[in-house]
Amino acid sequence: AAAIDHQDNDGNTALHYASYHGFDEVVSALLKEAKTAIVNKEGKTAMQWAEQQAREGFPTSKREGCLRVVQLLQDYKNGAKTSSQYGKGEDEDPQPTSKLRYQ
């Protein structure tokens, strides 16, 4: 796995943390190389973590950032953006390998 997809002891990657904190500009930059389907020990992808924070996050600015992140990740997953904006356009890694890692 690329260094950008390194998982910490909880299974989180840089994309997980940027998504969780609503750092949409960082997420946009990470999407050039990072895999979006990696799950952490809780079984959550970066988008799922951002969705949770969009619902529960405080303060409001964090919720708004997470909503922007969710939209970015949805657009990326759905191919709404050009591949040149995010890099190669290969967003999904084989999920079974990632999910099995922490089951």
Order of helices and strands: HHHHHH
Number of strands: 0
Number of helices: 6
Please estimate the helix content.
40-55%
Structural class: mainly alpha
Descriptive report:
The protein has 103 residues and is mainly alpha-helical. The protein has six helices and no strands. Residues 82-103 have low confidence and may be disordered.
Concise description?
The chain has 103 residues and is mainly alpha-helical. Helices cover 53% and strands 0% of the residues.
Name the features.
mainly alpha, 103 residues, globular, 0% strand, 53% helix
Layout of helices and strands, plus pairs?
Blueprint: H1 14-20, H2 24-30, H3 46-56, H4 60-78, H5 83-86, H6 95-101
